[in-house]
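Retro notes - structure team

What went well: the batch runner handled both jobs without manual restarts.
What didn't: labels got mixed up in the shared folder, which is why I'm recording both outputs here explicitly, each with its sequence directly above its tokens.

Job 1
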Amino acid sequence: MSTAADVGPGTTIPSLELVVDPEKMKVMTALLADPNPIHFDTRALAALGMDERPVNQGPLNMGYLQTMLARWAGGRDRLLSFRVRFQGNVLAGDRVRAQGQVAEVRETERGRVATCEISLEVVGGAVALSGTADVLLEETG
């Protein structure tokens, strides 16, 4: 990470790129006890006229963005707020890229905070999530 003093509007957050692992998707489906068959049943997907690859869980997609921010900021405890809008599906085997840019830096009671514009896109495809996050850059005192 750049030092907190170097961060300002326009600073690019190092992206995180990965391939969505179908086995991790199965584990998440079980952990969340999510009965929606679009996350695990290829026959249900076909019956709905969807791609036959299972749809990734929303919490996993959000986690990719949070991991990108935590790596940049120095820990998950520095993520102060996180708001995203779901715009599309991520499927098993997709390559995704979590990315962001600092929109604003301000002083708060807690310290220097960056508001970041963030998105998760399917590489070669569409944006799946977009939103904003507040990240603590440097604590006061």
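Job 2
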Amino acid sequence: MCGGTRALAAAGLLDERAHTSNEPGYLSGVPGYRGGAHYREDVCVSDGLIATAPGTSPISFAQACLRILVPEQEEGIAQMRAMFARDFA
């Protein structure tokens, strides 16, 4: 998740996409990263076929990835989210 954002940034895949990571400074040192204007302070951001999240948001990241991979399974994805939410209640 968070480490993957550095690889995406280095490949230029975040230069024109909304994204997040651990913090804005976490990506600023990546050679070639030019996506600072598209950085969002959020628990998870999806833009097209790319989902990004900080290391503190594994459930939101999993949910975003599932929505990309199996969008027709929204009901099951929502059930998964609710199941994990009970653990944090």
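One thing worth noting from job 2: The CA atoms of residues 67 and 74 lie 7 Å apart.
We'll revisit the folder naming next retro.
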